């Protein structure tokens, strides 16, 4: 997980892109959504799903359900300018050819905070 975000047309860690993401409970279904690319694993991109839903209000319930979120603020990935959160304890493998479009480059300090939260979430198991 090394930051490489820039707007060069190649998908790199630190960038928010749009792609199809399977639902956790049924991988045969899903939806097109923004994700934050945090790294690579061989030919795959490793990403985290974004949401504009505010999970701060139900953080205890989300933790009990096994979902951990980190606020990343606003960005051009959301046309309505809503603040976003990224789920740090569900890694998603994405075929780079499945990326529909680039949404934005996340500021490096925000990316580093997310990666720190990902590492902490995965140490907990």
Describe the structure in your own words.
This protein has one domain: SH3 type barrels (Roll). The longest helix is centred in the C-terminal third of the chain and has 17 residues, at 108-124. The chain is built from 2 helices and 7 strands, in the order E-E-E-H-E-E-E-E-H. The mean pLDDT is 88. Strands 1, 2, 3, 4, 5, 6 and 7 form a 7-stranded antiparallel sheet that branches. The chain is of the alpha+beta class. Helix content is 18%, strand content 36%.
Give the biggest sheet. 7 strands, antiparallel
Q: What is the percent of helical residues?
A: 10-25%
Looking at the structure, what is the overall shape?
Answer: globular
Number of strands: 7
Q: What is the helix tally?
A: 2
The N- to C-terminal Cα distance equals: 18 Å
CATH architecture: Roll
The CATH class name reads: Mainly Beta
Determine the strand fraction and express it as a percent band: 35-45%
Oligomer: single chain
Unreliable segments of 5+ consecutive residues: none
Overall tally of structural domains:
1
SS-based class: alpha+beta
Based on CA atoms alone, the radius of gyration comes out at 14 Å
CATH topology: SH3 type barrels
The chain-level mean pLDDT equals 88
Written as H for each helix and E for each strand, in order along the chain, the element string is EEEHEEEEH
């Amino acid at each position: 997980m090394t930051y490489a975000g820039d707007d060069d047309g190649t998908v790199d860690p630190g960038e928010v892109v749009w792609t199809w993401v399977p639902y956790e409970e049924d991988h045969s279904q899903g939806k097109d959504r923004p994700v934050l690319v945090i790294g690579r694993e061989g030919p795959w991109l490793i990403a985290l799903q974004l949401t504009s839903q505010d999970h701060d209000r139900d953080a205890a319930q989300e933790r009990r359900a096994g979902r951990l979120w980190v606020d990343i603020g606003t960005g051009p990935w959301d046309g309505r300018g809503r603040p976003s959160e990224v789920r740090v304890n569900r890694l998603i493998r994405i075929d780079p050819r499945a990326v529909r479009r680039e949404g934005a480059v996340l500021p490096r300090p925000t990316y580093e905070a997310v990666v720190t939260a990902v590492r902490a979430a995965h140490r907990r198991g």
